Amino acid sequence: MNTHLTTALRLATAGVPAMPLRKGKVPFANCPACLYTSCGGRPNMKTPGPCQCPRPCHAWAAATTDPDIITGPAWAASWKQAAAVAWHPGGIGLTVVDLDHADAIAWARRDLPATRTVPTTRGEHWIYQGAIPSANAVRDGVDIKSTMVYARWLGPGTGTMTTLPDTVRALLVKKPSPVRPVTVPVPAGGGECRHRTPAYLERGIAMAEQRIREATSGVHATVYRTFLAVLSTHGRCGCLTDVHAARLFAAAQSKGETARHCTDAWFNALTALGM
């Protein structure tokens, strides 16, 4: 029997979803209907779902523990051409930290708890218990392979598998967008100033910054409502300046908002108030 097919069947028996790979670690195009498309349950979907393909699906979604599929006619030709076997880590609740070079390995040995380790062509796979979203280049030479991706099977490895550490989970947290200097139009004014003292405006801007920075959910909506409130109170008399607007933009960007979204929210608030 084909060596790769034997490996896939052994993995399937152990409950590990397996699939064949072509040269270059590329999956076979088993079902043309799901190749590079975004239909339900296919590899490019944001969330996995059941595959309704008449043949085994494409990429990670093709990985299976069903021996009838693995040895069936749909994959008969694929196994004859297969150059390797892949597996779906997230399918069994695991995560592979793929370390591509010596510096990445040194980082892992310094900052991550020891776990099961598998040598690769260029580095190592560190396998942990626990599934998370997958991501490439979370730091130099480090990819995370878990849900909705496949990893090349290179053997069971050595060492005792441990729980996925928070250090790895933290690599997926999106960092706030860098604060960029902005120049936005403020109303020309001309109306009667209702600010009793300069401190009234300063207090209003400070409170608006605080409201944005303390938002724990619905940041987009909070930014828009705050811009709307500031403009309705301080935008008609001419006291509001580019400096004040830039402070509000900086607060929004510290929460991960882009400069483009800030500008859109500002103009939407201006339009809503007829300014």
Structure notes:
By secondary structure, this protein is of the alpha+beta class. The N and C termini lie far apart (76 Å). 35% of the residues lie in helices and 15% in strands. The protein has helices spanning 3-13, 67-70, 76-81, 102-111, 166-170, 198-213, 219-234, 242-254, 259-272; strands at residues 18-22, 26-27, 84-87, 94-99, 116-119, 124-129, 135-139, 142-145, 151-152, 162-163. A hairpin with a 2-residue loop joins strand 7 and strand 8 (142-145). Helix 6 packs parallel to helix 8 (242-254). Mean pLDDT is 83; it is low at 36-49. The chain is elongated, with a radius of gyration of 27 Å. The protein contains nine helices and ten strands. Strands 4, 5, 6, 7, 8 and 10 form a six-stranded mixed beta sheet that branches. A four-stranded antiparallel beta sheet has the order 2-1-3-9. The longest helix has 16 residues, at 198-213.
What is the number of helical segments per DSSP (H or I, 4+ residues)? 9
Identify low-pLDDT runs. 36-49
Question: Which H/E pattern describes the elements?
Answer: HEEHHEEHEEEEEEHHHHH
> Mind summarizing the main beta sheet?
6 strands, mixed
Strand content: 5-15%
Structural class: alpha+beta
Number of strands: 10
Compute the average pLDDT: 83
**Radius of gyration, in angstroms, nearest whole number:** 27 Å
Which term fits the overall shape? elongated
Compute the separation of the termini in Å.
76 Å
What proportion of the residues is helical, as a percent range?
Answer: 25-40%
